[in-house]
Hints:
Elements: H1 2-22, H2 41-52, H3 61-75, E1 110-114, E2 135-139, H4 140-146, E3 159-160, E4 167-170, E5 179-182, H5 188-201, H6 206-212, H7 230-242, H8 247-260, H9 265-268, H10 273-276, H11 292-302, E6 306-309, E7 315-316, E8 323-328, E9 333-337
Antiparallel strand pairs: 1-2, 3-4, 4-5, 6-7, 6-8, 8-9
Helix pairs in contact: 5-7
Amino acid sequence: MKHDLRIISLTTLLMLAAGSIWAQGPNGSGTYYQAADGKSGAALKTALSGVIYSRNEGGDLNTAYKALWTHFKTTDKRADGTVWDMYSNKRAMTFGTDQAGNYKAEGDVYNREHSFPNSWFGGKVMPMYTDLHHLYPTDGFVNNKRSNYPFGETNGESYKSANNFSKLGKCTFEGYTGTVFEPNDEYKGDFARTYFYMVTCYEEKLSDWYNNNAESRPTLDGTAYPGLSSWQLEMLMKWAANDPVSEKETARNNAVYTIQQNRNPFIDYPGLERFIWGDLKDASFSYDNYSATSIVEKRIKANRPETVYTTDGKQLNRLQKGINILRSKDGKVRKVMR
């Protein structure tokens, strides 16, 4: 009998070991996100905050901030070796040679851009000030034009960079009329996922940022959840849906993890924002068996007759990328982003 119990115990241990081996997250993340498994909505956001907040800060503020110039050569290098600038496409800049310094016009130099303006969190405050997940090398002149204005959509009556790549002007997105900076469509999803990371990673600080820095209030709502103002959240959800995770983002996320030992979950799990703020916030997140799209597809199939339409009324057979309108037989309508 004792021999049989040993066999059962050994079998159980082997099964558990096998489960541990195969239960792995995406992009080599292993069990990094395991603590968030099974969570949804606000609870998922808080659980992820606990996972991603811890990192290697890289020394004191001055040391870590200076090191960004070197880190950019790993995190933001194009295939041809030039700087990957997401604010300007006027010319390709060279690492080191075109670094910082004085500028008089677009295309002169690149600098270290806090895409989530540092004034919103009090300036030179660690760890936000040196957090690579929201720091990018950008054209100095365009960065100066952006200043600390929120991201938004605009006609660009105040400023347009070369080739109309990025714009500054009055916000045209419903819910806000102040001045905003609009990045190029190519990178709107990148910045949306950056902001999702910031309000998740630092959710315990959001109320202080909101109360102490008025410039943050068009973007933040002063709470840990949802964290973002209603218009900003709606816009960023749209940006994320229309500009899905790219190979650039995945490679950068992996590179940043190598440097500071934390990750952006919104890059590792495309559509994760829907489990926190969107149409899947009542569904459970699975770190090792994840698919936002399959959950929505299954729900639609189970709830037939529920018809899928485009925003302009065209009927579809299945979800398309972007915004979908679902109408059930009892007339209820809901919006789903894919």
